[in-house]
Amino acid sequence: MLSAPYLYLFLLMYLLRGLTPKAEEKNIEIIVNLIEVEILGDKARLKQIFLNVIDNAIKYSYQEGQVTIALTQEEKQVVISVTDHESELQKNIYHL
């Protein structure tokens, strides 16, 4: 179900706050590059997707690795990328 436009920057920051202790256990540096942009979508489903992807990036990173989360806009598309620099998951990019 589509919701009203929502600033997903706040949702991503909320999720990161909850996942930070997990990253700290492995000394993983989380690099964040987020812009304020409204997205029209199913908030609950997008939250679940973001949580799963970010959690997996942390889970499968090596000790002292890096995970970069970026929310950018390319023309009329919003791009959310989660890059795990130290494992097999290398890159997940979602165009919304």
Question: What's the arrangement of secondary structure elements?
Answer:
Elements: E1 6-7, H1 8-25, E2 29-34, E3 38-39, H2 43-59, E4 66-74, E5 77-84, E6 91-95
Parallel strand pairs: 2-4
Antiparallel strand pairs: 1-3, 4-5, 5-6
Your description of this structure?
This protein has 96 residues and is an alpha+beta fold. It has one domain: 2-Layer Sandwich (Heat Shock Protein 90). Helix content is 36%, strand content 33%. It is globular and about 40 Å long. The model has no long low-confidence stretch (mean pLDDT 82).
Strand order of the largest sheet: 2-4-5-6
Q: What is the CATH topology classification name?
A: Heat Shock Protein 90
Give the number of helices.
2
Whole-angstrom Rg: 13 Å
Instruction: State the helicity in percent bands.
Output: 25-40%
Task: Provide a compact summary of the structure.
The chain has 96 residues and is α+β, with helices and mostly antiparallel strands. It is 36% helix and 33% strand.
Provide keyphrases for this structure.
96 residues; alpha+beta; Heat Shock Protein 90; 4-stranded mixed beta sheet; two-stranded antiparallel sheet; 2 helices
